[in-house]
Every structure is written in C-alpha cells, then in structure tokens.
Amino acid sequence: MTERAQAQKPGTLKMISRYIFSRSRMVFYEYPYSNPDPWQPSEDGPIFRVLTVSDLGRLSELLAIQRDCEPVFKPAGIQEAAARLETGEVCYICEKEGRIIGYSWFAKGEKYIPEIESTILLGQKDLYLFNSYILKDHRRRNVVGGNLSAARKDLIPQGFAREITATMEWNKPAGGSLMKLNFRVAGTVTAGYLLTFRYVINTCRDIVFRNQTGTFGFYRKMISKLRMLFFRDQRLLPGTEEDDRCIPG
Description:
11 strands; Aminopeptidase; 8-stranded mixed sheet; 249 residues; alpha+beta; single chain
C-alpha cells in the first residue's frame, strides 16, 4: 500500500462509517414577537444597525479575526456575505468606535442547514436567526441582544412575528444564552444515517423542514459516482476520439 493510500484510508473509513451510523441533533428555539423584549441599552452606547454593502470592507476585518480564533464554526467569506445580501438575507451589526465587533444574520423564506442536511421552510411571518458572532473582548455585554432588538424594530413593522434559531445539542452555553434572551425551546431535529439509510426526526410542532438528501441519498451519491467513472472509462477506450489523439501519427 502506498503512503498516499495509507494517508487516505482513515478518511475513507470515516466516510463509510458515517453512512453506517451517524447522528446530529440540533435544538430549535423560537421567540414570538408578542414576548417582551428583555434587552436594555448598555451604558457605553455602541451602535446597532443593519449591515449595508458599504460595510463589507470592515466586516471582512472581523471575519478574518473570527477565522483565526474560531476552531469549530468557520465564518462565511466576504463574497458569501455579499451574496447573502443580494438574495434578501439581512445582517445586523454592533459598531463601536467605528469598528464592527459583532453581527447577526437573518434569513427569510428558507435556509439550508448543513449540520442536518435539511432546509428550514419558514412561514411568511418567520425569520431564521442562523449566524451570530461577537469578538471575545466584547462578549457577556449583551451585544447579540442589541442586534436582535435593532432588527425587531425594523422587522416587526414589516409583518414578521417570530424568530427561530438553533444550536447543536452539545452547545449548552449557547442554549443558555438564548433562554436568557426569552427564547423558548420549540423542539429538536435529529438527522443521520442508519445502515446507509438517511433519517430525519423532527419534534418541532410548528417548524417544517425539507430533507435535502432523502432516505436513499447514499445510493444516489454512489450511483452518481459510478456513472462518472463509467463515462470517464468510456472516453478512454481504444478507438475513441480522445484515444486517437494520444496515438503518434
């Protein structure tokens, strides 16, 4: 076995074992806008407002810091941030002394959630809070609460009535922070594979998801790869146009 094959083997085994048995569980939270807003302005007076295209340059500075400091959840690139704005997603930022120190993203309509390989289908009055980050030196100062309060002042008059968000089940600190912000647990979504068959279990009463992979996703991927290999081999058979070009004249 070559060194390259030996290096690839653990990754291959891990990939195969994922389809034999794997499980990811997310806890979903909701915040009806009929609830009282618990956020109170801080004394040092940071600015909370919506992100605009002209802010992307300064946002990139925060994303670069996050990319270096965050070991688990890597941030989006600045091009993806620009694309989000173009597709109607909204971001609220916390600005202090001209520097962006935190952000919170909201989606409307639907949003793909890679952790469970499913898409959340939002009602017309629903928003999905799917991405927040605060610089470490400014945490525990309710920056996320300020972003949410600023967003609600703009979005409630537009007819929105509920925020939905989620955390991984193991991320207890994030769940505790949401409860302090008056979010309540709406349910869980458990997704994974059992003996190569994909499953999704949704206990959320009023939140709907579309399973992007489907029950037979593993077999669709395998068939797709076999088709690619088959057509690649067909192109390399003797007598084909590609093969003729390789034969000295």
